[in-house]
């Protein structure tokens, strides 16, 4: 099978589409259709004179036509826009004044310079020939088998100081020994990057009151501002202290949400906690969630707190209720080790919260009730 690389401009490809020299609807094409937003994103990319993925065409000598193997929706969007099928969306990020001025324009309404830019945009095309039966379809399968990118993987493509700080901290974690062998999970699909980004933004806001959405993290990455050096150093210090405790204690079992909450805890309420205390907190943590050989004897309130925590590391993990509860949970564990290791503000919050919880009967320990009490006592603020 031969793949011949070409770089025709949009004008040339549009002519081939109009003359039916390119078949947009061969039988093997998938039935998925891009929504308007995806189409506008593609046109925005072209108008910015950026790059789009290559298009693969099969030379079908029996039909004297080229069939689209991969790039069907891209070509359809280009053809539809040229025929005034939809308008430019000038509000797409990153903000660009020239693109913003085109908002709402059909192709026919574009300034002549932008029409020229669109028509002269070079497409990367591979024409496939000299193949045996099945080869093009195997290529099609391989082109489309990649897993969908996670939010962290998409954010990692942005250049900027926010991304650089996150990567620097993750590299620091690697040097210090964070891995599946020490904390129970590794950086697959950039899981550590996601945790650290959330930690840094939470510390920057000094609040976990509202759910931190992926689009908010992405927006922070797109901004030109760096995270403060103090916050970056604080997170590194917290990570190092936790790892020293792990090396003294042994492997612990965390996941992304529990690691997030642990690092936020050590960076805030546990700022004065020593290595020995962190080790004791981790041991108590492992006992509480049933991963240690010496489980804790629990009363009804303690059981309710631990059950609620188990729920909050597995369901709606970045919902504000989950994040707030986990913040309380690590402070509660610290209070059980010794209340003096918490900063005074957090120590007072733990005591006041526990006093209110103890005043209720067992049947009142619902998710809604816990959240109401925690919000009342200010657990949404760091």
TrEMBL record:
<protein>
    <recommendedName>
        <fullName>GmrSD restriction endonucleases N-terminal domain-containing protein</fullName>
    </recommendedName>
</protein>
<feature type="domain" description="GmrSD restriction endonucleases N-terminal">
    <location>
        <begin position="18"/>
        <end position="158"/>
    </location>
</feature>
<dbReference type="Pfam" id="PF03235">
    <property type="entry name" value="GmrSD_N"/>
</dbReference>
<dbReference type="InterPro" id="IPR004919">
    <property type="entry name" value="GmrSD_N"/>
</dbReference>
């Amino acid at each position: 099978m031969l793949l011949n690389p070409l770089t025709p401009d949009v004008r040339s490809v549009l002519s081939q589409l109009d003359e039916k020299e390119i078949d947009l609807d061969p039988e093997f094409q998938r039935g998925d259709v891009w929504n308007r937003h995806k189409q506008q994103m593609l046109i925005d990319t072209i108008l910015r004179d950026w790059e789009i993925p290559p298009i693969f065409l099969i030379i079908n000598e029996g039909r004297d036509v080229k069939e689209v193997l991969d790039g069907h929706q891209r070509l359809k969007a280009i053809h539809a826009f040229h025929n005034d099928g939809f308008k430019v969306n000038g509000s797409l990020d990153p903000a660009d004044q020239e693109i913003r001025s085109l908002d709402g324009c059909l192709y026919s309404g574009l300034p002549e310079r932008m029409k020229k830019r669109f028509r002269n945009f070079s497409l990367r095309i591979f024409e496939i020939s000299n193949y045996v039966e099945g080869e093009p379809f195997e290529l099609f399968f391989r082109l489309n088998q990649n897993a969908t990118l996670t939010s962290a993987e998409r954010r990692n493509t942005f250049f900027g100081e926010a991304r650089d700080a996150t990567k620097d901290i993750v590299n620091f974690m690697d040097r210090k020994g964070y891995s599946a062998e020490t904390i129970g999970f590794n950086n697959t699909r950039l899981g550590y990057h996601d945790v650290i980004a959330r930690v840094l933004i939470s510390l920057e806001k000094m609040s976990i009151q509202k759910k931190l959405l992926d689009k908010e993290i992405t927006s922070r990455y797109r901004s030109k501002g760096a995270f403060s050096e103090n916050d970056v150093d604080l997170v590194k210090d917290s990570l190092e202290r936790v790892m020293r405790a792990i090396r003294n204690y042994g492997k612990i079992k965390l996941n992304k949400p529990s690691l997030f909450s642990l690092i936020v805890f050590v960076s805030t309420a546990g700022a004065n906690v020593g290595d020995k205390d962190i080790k004791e907190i981790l041991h108590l943590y492992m006992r509480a969630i049933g991963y240690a050989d010496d489980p804790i004897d629990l009363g009804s309130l303690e059981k309710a707190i631990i059950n609620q925590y188990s729920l909050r590391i597995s369901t709606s993990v970045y919902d504000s209720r989950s994040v707030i509860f986990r913040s309380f949970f690590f402070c509660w564990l610290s209070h059980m080790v010794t209340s003096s290791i918490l900063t005074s503000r957090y120590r007072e919050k733990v005591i006041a919260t526990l006093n209110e919880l103890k005043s209720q009967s067992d049947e009142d320990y619902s998710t809604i009730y816990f959240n109401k009490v925690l919000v009342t006592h200010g657990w949404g603020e760091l």
